[in-house]
């Protein structure tokens, strides 16, 4: 018999994680593996076979720790799989593969207007529609006569339960395939015949059914362990962060920080958002929350820029105690020096996609350099937040929530709002658990951030002035 513990399967772009939780939200165990892409006959694909092989062993190990009652699949966006009956006909494409340039112009002419979809035209395969167009143009034979498309979290739900489904948070993630205000497929998806190929839409919280006999046999999980439909990863974190009592009834924006800094806003009922304010050329868009509501969003590759400026995870300038305790002590020196970082070191994305990143003033070293990077992240985040009208309450979660330079500067720049942090590393998993039990309370209270004890207005003004005079490439 199944128990009441919950397994969260989180398939990210870089890593896949499997975590085991009690019904009350206490973590019992976890497993993780790095991801990579593989070569399919027609495209660079996500390594679903490799993930599945690892998943089998990890599920077997975790099933011995506690009685599992539920599995919640979570996965990144811009990916879908093509099924043919009970077989995988086409593995999900890797969104970092560039389509041939001539296809760009053909595809762009077919897309619905941004004002209707809230989906900007992104590079590579970050628009799911562009992936589908590329595949069917270069390999028209890919479509089985009874082929069914499933979005990526739901691929794993199908693999575990045998039930094919589609869910709105993945369809609404810059796919070009969804009109969020009308809550329907885009004209592009309908005209190309893709809409009718997608599996039935199901709620993220819906139980699709028990795991298949095959998976029960392979893993030792109870045969009545239930598989939920699942959700897009940023939306899982968004759903979890909004559960805090301090945010009830407020206009809330959640910034998830990692390789990408993704800000998603839930406007208060009395302050509806005008989608005409969004600027697709500056990486603003609409996501869709688990209830199908449009969520004004903005993004930039903050984590990638940090890697460029101070090195990878093994850099001493990125050690948690250094970022938390040492670098902030150099903030005053940075402000006095006037040295600052102008965007951007991840060109093509973010609020300043055409600009060329550079130092204004002497290039700093050591603690001052890491402090300047934190100030830079806050200045870019502040610009992104302004583009989506963020106000009242701002919550930062993820890898950079304990970056004291970034958080303090953001609180200073957003003095008319309450800036909170959640230092739990499991915000995404908590949001996934809430799909099973919406009454689950957060594991810890939010912490309200304090502004820096320095005047930062002049520094911020000089930064904005540097943008006006900065170099750009067409």
Automatic annotation (TrEMBL):
<protein>
    <submittedName>
        <fullName>L-fuculokinase</fullName>
    </submittedName>
</protein>
<keyword id="KW-0808">Transferase</keyword>
<keyword id="KW-0418">Kinase</keyword>
<dbReference type="InterPro" id="IPR049382">
    <property type="entry name" value="FGGY_C_2"/>
</dbReference>
<dbReference type="GO" id="GO:0016301">
    <property type="term" value="F:kinase activity"/>
</dbReference>
<feature type="domain" description="Carbohydrate kinase FGGY C-terminal">
    <location>
        <begin position="251"/>
        <end position="438"/>
    </location>
</feature>
<dbReference type="InterPro" id="IPR043129">
    <property type="entry name" value="ATPase_NBD"/>
</dbReference>
<dbReference type="Pfam" id="PF21546">
    <property type="entry name" value="FGGY_C_2"/>
</dbReference>
């Amino acid at each position: 018999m199944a128990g009441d513990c919950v397994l969260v399967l989180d398939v990210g772009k870089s890593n896949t994680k499997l975590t085991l939780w009690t019904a009350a939200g206490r973590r019992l165990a976890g497993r993780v593996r790095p991801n990579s892409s593989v070569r399919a006959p027609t495209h660079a694909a996500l390594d679903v076979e490799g993930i599945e092989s690892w998943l089998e062993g990890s599920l077997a190990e975790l099933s011995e720790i506690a009685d599992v009652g539920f599995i919640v699949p979570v996965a990144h966006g811009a990916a879908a799989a093509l099924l043919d009956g009970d077989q995988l006909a086409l593995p999900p494409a890797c969104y970092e593969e560039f389509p041939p340039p001539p296809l760009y112009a053909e595809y762009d002419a077919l897309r619905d207007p941004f004002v209707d979809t809230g989906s900007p035209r992104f590079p590579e395969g970050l628009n799911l529609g562009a992936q589908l167009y590329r595949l069917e143009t270069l390999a028209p034979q890919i479509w089985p006569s009874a082929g069914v498309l499933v979005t990526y979290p739901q691929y794993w739900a199908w693999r575990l339960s045998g039930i094919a489904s589609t869910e709105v948070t993945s369809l609404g993630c810059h796919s070009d395939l969804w009109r969020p205000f009308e809550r329907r497929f885009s004209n592009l998806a309908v005209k190309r015949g893709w809409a009718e190929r997608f599996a039935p839409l199901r709620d993220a919280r819906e139980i699709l059914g028990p795991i298949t006999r095959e998976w029960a046999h392979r893993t030792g999980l109870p045969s009545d362990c239930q598989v939920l439909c699942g959700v897009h990863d940023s939306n899982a974190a968004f759903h979890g962060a909004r559960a805090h009592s301090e945010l009830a009834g407020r206009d809330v924006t959640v910034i998830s920080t990692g390789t990408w800094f993704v800000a998603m806003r839930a406007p208060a009922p009395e302050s509806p958002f005008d989608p005409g304010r969004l600027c697709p050329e500056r990486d603003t868009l609409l996501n869709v929350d688990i209830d199908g509501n449009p969520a004004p969003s903005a993004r930039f590759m903050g984590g990638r820029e940090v890697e460029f400026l101070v090195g990878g995870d093994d850099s001493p300038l990125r050690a948690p105690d250094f970022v938390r305790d040492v670098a902030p002590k150099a903030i005053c020196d940075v402000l006095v020096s006037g040295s600052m970082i102008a965007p951007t070191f991840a060109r093509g994305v973010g609020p300043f996609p055409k600009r060329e990143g550079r130092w204004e003033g002497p290039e700093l070293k050591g603690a001052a350099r890491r402090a300047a990077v934190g100030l830079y992240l806050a200045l870019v985040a502040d610009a992104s937040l302004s583009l989506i009208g963020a106000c009242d309450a701002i919550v930062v979660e993820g890898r950079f929530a304990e970056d004291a330079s970034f958080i303090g500067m953001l609180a200073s720049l957003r003095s008319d709002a309450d800036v909170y942090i959640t230092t739990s590393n499991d915000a995404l998993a908590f949001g996934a658990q809430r799909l099973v039990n919406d009454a689950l309370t957060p594991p810890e209270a939010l912490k309200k951030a304090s502004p820096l004890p320095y005047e930062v207005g002049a520094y911020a003004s000089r930064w904005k002035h540097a943008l006006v005079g900065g170099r750009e490439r067409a």
